[in-house]
Amino acid sequence: MKAGEIVLVDWRDARGAETNRAGRPAVVISDDAIAPAHPRSVVLVPLTSKRDAAIAGLTVTLEPTAANGGAVRSYLLAHLVTATAVVRIKGRPGTYIEPRQLDELREAVALCVGAQR
């Protein structure tokens, strides 16, 4: 999997406030240069079409394009960044966000974890 790739994730056995849905889209943000060739886990940011889930400054808005396969405006939720076992990846539709969107997303994640102020 490559950074910026949109994948479908099975999070059905989530706990508490975690996402609990099969086939939920998410974007890989793991760094290609440091991730192992065959990782056991991957760092993801969930994608949603629900505007009310977005937090200003911590969300990247994704307009639908052929490259990302979207049908409606969606939101990348940096505040919900998570490491997920690769076995939870149930689909790879071959769609990607743009490099500038990946950069923006990584900056938002950095804010969430206190790595950037």
Protein described:
This protein has one helix at residues 99-112; strands at residues 5-9, 24-28, 41-48, 59-62, 74-77, 82-85, 89-96. It is mainly beta. It has a single domain, classed as SH3 type barrels. The longest helix has 14 residues, at 99-112. The chain starts with a strand and ends in a 5-residue tail after the last helix.
Topology, please?
Elements (H helix, E strand, L loop, with lengths): L4 E5 L14 E5 L12 E8 L10 E4 L11 E4 L4 E4 L3 E8 L2 H14 L5
- Taken together, the total number of domains comes to 1
Annotated CATH architecture: Roll
Q: Approximately what portion of the residues adopt beta-strand conformation?
A: 25-35%
Determine the number of helices (DSSP H or I, runs of at least 4 residues): 1
Task: Give the strand tally.
Answer: 7
Which CATH class applies here? Mainly Beta
Q: What is the global morphology?
A: globular
Q: What composes the largest sheet?
A: 7 strands, antiparallel
Order of helices and strands: EEEEEEEH
Helix and strand content put the structural class at mainly beta
Which spans have pLDDT < 50 for at least 5 consecutive residues? none
Percent range of helical residues: 10-25%
Mean pLDDT across residues:
89
CATH fold name: SH3 type barrels
Rg on CA atoms, Å: 13 Å
Termini separation (Å)? 29 Å
